Amino acid sequence: MNGVSIKYFVITIASIFVALGVGILIGFSLNSEKFVQKQFQQQLSLIDKNLVELKKENDRLVKKIDEYKSQINQLGKINDTLVNAYLKTCKSNAVVSLIVTSTDYSYNDLIDFLRKNQIKLARIVKIKRAFVDVLNNKTSDFPEYKLPEDAINTLMLYAVFDMKDDLITKLTEKRYIEINRLSGEIADTILIAGGNTLQNDTFNAVDRRFIEKLKNINDLNIVGVEQSYSELNYCEKYKSMGLDTVDNVDDLTGKVSLIELIRGGNGNYGTKKEANLLMPNTFTSIEVSENSLKKRRESLLEQYQNIQATNVMP
């Protein structure tokens, strides 16, 4: 009997402890749930507060951006006004020929700009990619000519003096070049429009040869230009050959710099490492520009007459 009583007592005590444990566990779980809910609500409240602050900051920044946009628009209008005033005041009677050596980028916007601002365009020569084969004597289309010398000479004489021969005609017909003759005037300024992608560096094959030949013409104004997004910086190479340059001719500041160089100014302008200034900080006076242009024209006319008389190229 005593053994049964003790066994029953032990089971009873164990049951009590199990019940207490279960109760404690349930109580702890209930308290934990309330704790988690409380923490979750606090986090939600904090997030909501932060969202309100972020919305206020976003509204402030949007307002600031609108203010900056308005200022930029105003500055753009002011710049346009100043540039238009400069172009009207500092007109140039220079005659320009454009040689586009780049085969990756278009310069139609530049041509439109020059025409819009009454810069006299005499001739436009666009070099095609296949022309490199002509210069490297890798074509059988011109057996009667000495290449590359004859090809460079004939294009130089055409661009500057409007002297056209059979080779120009053949190069055009076979689509090695594209030409557009706008007037028969002697060009006192030559623009070399270069720049290419990394996969198409033709500077030594094309540009260098043109520049070396053009520099033999006394008093000729030669300017090298490229666009700001050109992968290869041709203006750095133009500068090394002694040319005035504009490496951002697609931008407003670049266009102003170009006009100043056409008027007889000097310098290397733009945004790349070869540039000394973004744009000119002083401008050539009308009197100095006209005197410089007069000297160039007289010299070029004399050289043109000598070429015709002696049939000897510079």
From TrEMBL:
Pfam families in the cross-refs: MctB
Bilayer-spanning residue ranges: 6-30
Cross-referenced InterPro entries: MctB
Domain of life the protein comes from: Bacteria
Keyword set, alphabetical order: Coiled coil, Membrane, Transmembrane, Transmembrane helix
One GO term of the biological process aspect: copper ion homeostasis
Annotated GO CC locations: membrane
Coiled-coil regions, chain positions: 37-78
Protein name per UniProt: Copper transporter
